[in-house]
Design a protein that fits this description.
alpha/beta, eight-stranded parallel β-barrel, two-stranded antiparallel ribbon, 12 helices, 14 strands, about 30% helix, about 15% strand
């Protein structure tokens, strides 16, 4: 099975082609530092070829909702260092995903109480977790000024530096799934008429500025990016994504990044269209807005030449030993949905491996 074979590239050497996709799980302290359970959770899954963390805010002004972790302060760095040390001790590799909420946010969901800001004053209507345990819809954001944009670029770069200082093997810029960089790319969230809006070249300017700032801080081999062309989540709309993403991928390809993480779409076959335009490592995500990714779907993607690696999301939640289960064709455990976003180890780091579950059943 190609999925289980070693992968070697100039910037990555991985024991298999199974990637753990980023998934929001809301297990941080009030200040945004990851809890001790986070170290357990990721180290349990260290047999993945590569782990990409849940989205981490680079600055409190980009916190999308309560209990999402951050990478802004020395306390954050120290807490994440315990996570990366645990993963490395278990033989794993881990990238930090930098995720700025942009228009997605609420003052009662942020540790600094700030109002959300995005490319334009367009709300997404998403329901967010608040610090007090309640929920509320995102507010209509204010449109970012040029000073806001410049600050956000600096925040990404500083967080990337913090990530490397915390022991991460690299960072993935979250430019997908309705977060800030995607908001600049999409038709209906970027209504600007300045140099950051209007034409495809202008709409992709912010993505390239963030990428270049991160590369300047940590180098291209530690920098990656995730894109989701045409992803309609949270009211995003890209009527004709192909021209913009072809141009964006061509520009990113010149930067010799660690990898491109790309989600497919039923209306726009991004993998088939963009794979020939990308000469580096490509991670495919084929489960976004679809059924959870299976080993069979991943293998078909690799055999078709659409990717070098495949990311699994939901399958990793309840199966810390997913690689072992794929290797031996073992059944997957189900997710306990009622504790998916709890505040403790329950439903998070308490899922047993196959061997542990078998031993318990035998007893």
């Amino acid at each position: 099975m190609k999925l289980l074979t070693e992968y070697r590239a100039p910037h990555l050497t991985l024991p298999n082609r199974v990637v753990m996709a980023p998934m929001t799980r809301l297990r941080s302290h009030a200040d945004g530092s990851p809890t001790a359970d986070v170290a357990d959770y990721y180290s349990q899954r260290a047999s993945a070829g590569l782990i990409v963390t849940e989205g981490i805010w680079p600055h409190s002004s980009g916190q999308s909702e309560a209990w999402v972790p951050g990478l802004q302060t020395p306390e954050h760095v120290a807490a994440w260092r315990r996570v990366t040390a645990s993963v490395h001790a278990a033989g794993g590799r881990i990238f930090a995903q930098l995720m700025h909420g942009g228009r997605k946010g609420h003052p009662l969901a942020r540790i600094d109480g700030s109002l959300p800001a995005g490319p334009s004053a367009v709300s997404d209507g998403d329901v967010l977790h608040l610090i007090d345990g309640g929920k509320a819809e995102s507010l209509t954001p204010r449109a970012m000024t040029r000073a806001d944009i410049e600050a956000a670029v600096r925040h990404y770069a500083a967080a990337a530096r913090n990530a490397v200082d915390a022991g991460f093997d690299g960072v993935e810029i979250h430019a997908a799934n309705s977060y800030l960089v995607h908001q600049f790319l999409a038709d209906n969230t970027n209504l600007r008429d300045d140099e950051y809006g209007g034409t495809p070249a202008n709409r992709m300017r912010f993505a390239l500025e963030v990428t270049d700032a991160v590369v300047a801080q940590v180098g291209s081999r530690r920098t990656a990016i995730r894109l989701s062309p045409g992803n309609p989540q949270f009211g995003m709309r890209e009527q004709d994504p192909a021209p913009l993403y072809r141009a964006l991928v061509a520009e990113l390809d010149r930067r010799d990044l660690a990898y491109l993480h790309l989600t497919d779409n039923d209306d726009y076959p991004a993998l088939a269209d963009l794979r020939p335009r990308w000469h580096g490592t490509l991670i495919a995500n084929v489960g976004e807005n679809r059924a959870p990714t299976s080993a069979e779907a991943a293998e078909r993607t690799l055999r078709a030449g659409h990717a070098d690696l495949v990311s699994f999301g939901r399958a990793f939640i309840a199966n810390p030993d997913l690689v072992h289960r794929i290797t031996h064709d073992l059944p997957l455990a189900p997710i306990r949905e009622e504790v998916l976003y709890g505040r403790t180890a329950e439903g998070y780091s308490d899922y047993p491996s196959w061997t542990a579950a078998s031993a318990t059943s035998a007893a």
